[in-house]
Structure formats: structure tokens, C-alpha cells
Queue: 2 jobs
Job 1
Amino acid sequence: MSTLVVYDSNFGNTQVIAEAIAAELGEDTRAVPVAGLGLDSLTGVELLVVGGPVNGWRPSPRMQTFLAQFSHGTLRGVRAAAFDTRLRLFIHGDAAGKMAHALERAGAHIVARPVGFVVEGTHGPLAAGELEKAVAWAGSIVSAIHR
Ligand SMILES: Cc1cc2nc3c(=O)[nH]c(=O)nc-3n(C[C@H](O)[C@H](O)[C@H](O)COP(=O)(O)O)c2cc1C
């Protein structure tokens, strides 16, 4: 299955998560930064995972630019999932849910619940156990697509 992980990352934390998820999804899976990415990069992709930091309670500006290219049906027949990285705040915002909605609106079938992985501060590091949580979440995607 042709799989792509598209991520945004200001300080490297989401990149680390994205690369761990890509490794778990299979050796052919690439993790690519979202900056400047066009819809042509999705040609032939059957499983799309997107992830980025919560920035101001929503997906980061670069991720919003990427998602804004989608129209109804862009992702028809594509399976997809979304994650974010976020602070341990009472009101942290939910970028993963918003990204998953955007993928779904474009016609994708969401195969894993949107999830947030915690960083200890704006620059990181990832909180203890979050990398392992990300690998387990990727494993749930593998299980879902082989069901
Ligand atoms: C401009 C800006 C806005 C942010 N807004 C939020 C926010 O609303 N909620 C939150 O939990 N974290 C927020 N953060 C913290 C980011 O979630 C954190 O920097 C990010 O997860 C780190 O991942 P990265 O290294 O991949 O960028 C913000 C960070 C920046 C720089």
C-alpha cells in the first residue's frame, strides 16, 4: 500500500513523531515536510497520515495551506488519519480533530481516532512515553487497514 506521512514541525518534535509513525507503517513509507507540498504529491497514495503542531488552537499555518488545497472528492478512496503535538494545557486546542475533518471532507476514510502527543514546552521535548504512544497509534492504523 502506498503510504505517505505529511508533517509540519517548527522545532523538530512533530518530525520525530512523524518519522517513528512512518517507520511503523512500513519501510516504503516516507515522511515528508508539508511546506510547499502540492496535490501532485498525493498521486497514487492510498494511506495518508498528516500531523503537525497545534498553533493557536488549530493546525499550523503551513498545514492549513496544504489542507486548503483539498476539495470535495480529492481524497476519495484514500484512507487517512491525523495527529498533532500539543502542550499539556487545560485548553490546548485540537488540531488533529480539525485535520481529520478536513481529510474526511475531502472524501478520505478515517481509520484511526485523531490523537495528540504531548510536548513539555513550546520547543519540546516530547513528554515521556509519547513516542511509544505514537508507535502504538501507528500500529492501530496497520490493524485497521488489514481488518
Ligand atoms: C505560534 C505557536 C502557537 C502555539 N499554540 C498552541 C496551542 O494553541 N495549543 C497548544 O497545545 N500548543 C501550542 N503551541 C505549542 C506547540 O504545540 C509546540 O510548539 C509543538 O507541539 C512543538 O512541535 P514542533 O517542534 O514539531 O513544532 C504553540 C506554539 C507556537 C510556536
Note: The radius of gyration is 14 Å.
Job 2
Amino acid sequence: MADPSSYHFTLPKSKRPSEVTLNEPWYPGVQPFWPACTTKRSVDPILGVTAVVIHATAGSSSAGAISVIKRAKDPASFHWLVPDEDEPQHGQLVWACVPEALAAWHVRNAASHPDVNGGATRVNHWSLGIEVVNAQKNDPFSDWQIEATARIVRHCWAKYPNLLHVLSHAKLDPQRRSDPGSHFDWARFKGLVLNGEAEAVDPLVALAKPLSKLKPAEANGCCDV
Ligand SMILES: [Zn+2]
């Protein structure tokens, strides 16, 4: 079984895409919560971004993950959210959750790994965070969730010239976190990112469907910081 704490690859400058579009509407109602769940980046918001961290929510809905952004006590945050297969947005869009220019709170400040930026801490300041809705224990990821996550990473790769590391939360914080988990097909994901097949995923650029089918917020949310 795959070990999520080993999930990591780097992006070769020679293969950097020129532009990759995303269908990424704001998750409804998140804007008022940004001041309480983000920080001004300590590095240049474009040139200083060098990593993308892949997470899974350990919950079963987008609304449950978003409830972590909205909670008053110990909020967490992430830049994008990839819907689960039973949600109407699956196959259609990924949610933008907080501005990329701000540091989202998706990795504990003390977490680090010697393979990544020389073991630097405060990962949130120099990274972007993607959450994939997945309940974890024995919940498979859909093919589209892997493709959509790869497309987000390619979007970032095109936009951030110094982006180098793509890795799991588990690699940065193995004592506390195992996400995105052993069911996330990291090998396929890596191939989609590096070879650009994710750009062939047509549904991700399709128009968003109505939001009326969103589930109510759940008590459990994503992995926190
Ligand atoms: Zn996580």
C-alpha cells in the first residue's frame, strides 16, 4: 500500500506550461471569513511560492470542509477545494476558497521536511494548499478528482515561475497527518501533472451548475493546521 508520507515530486522548468485555465468560482459566502483564516505572505506572493501541498478533507462534503474556514475557534483554510463524486459540482468545477495572494492555514507552522526548501518551516507562507473532499478510510477518489487536482497544479505551475515542489501534507507532518492517504493515486496524479494530460479534462472548464444541491455544513471538517 502506498505511503502518503512519501508523496513528493518536483516540477522541471523545461516542461512548465504557458497557461492552464481553471473553472474556479468562489465557494459561496467565504469572503467575510478571510481576515480570520489567512495571513499576509512573508514572501513575494508570486515569486516566493515554491510548493503546492495536497490534502484530503477526512470529511464527506465540500460544505463540511468549508465549515472549517468559517468556524470561530481554530479556523483553517486552503486555496482550492475539489468536490466529491456525489456533489453536483463534481466534474464541473473546483472551488476557490481563499485568495492565492494570501497564506492559507493548511500546514502547522512547525511542520517541515529537509527535502523541501531546505527544511524551512512556516510552509503556509511559501505554498498553496489544495483540499480534495474524501472521507479517507476506504473512500476511493474519483478519476476526475485526481484529474482536477492535477489541473490545479498545472495552473499553479504556469502561474508561479519558482514553483518546484508538489507534495502531500503527510510528508510535511507525518506524526499527525496521513492525507491525502493511501487511496490517492499519486503515480497517476504525477503523470497527469508532468505530462499535461489534465488539460484534456473538458468538464473542468464547463459552466458551473446551480448550487442548490449543496449539503448543509457538517460538524467534521478538513484536516486542520
Ligand atoms: Zn491536510
Note: The longest strand covers residues 51-56.
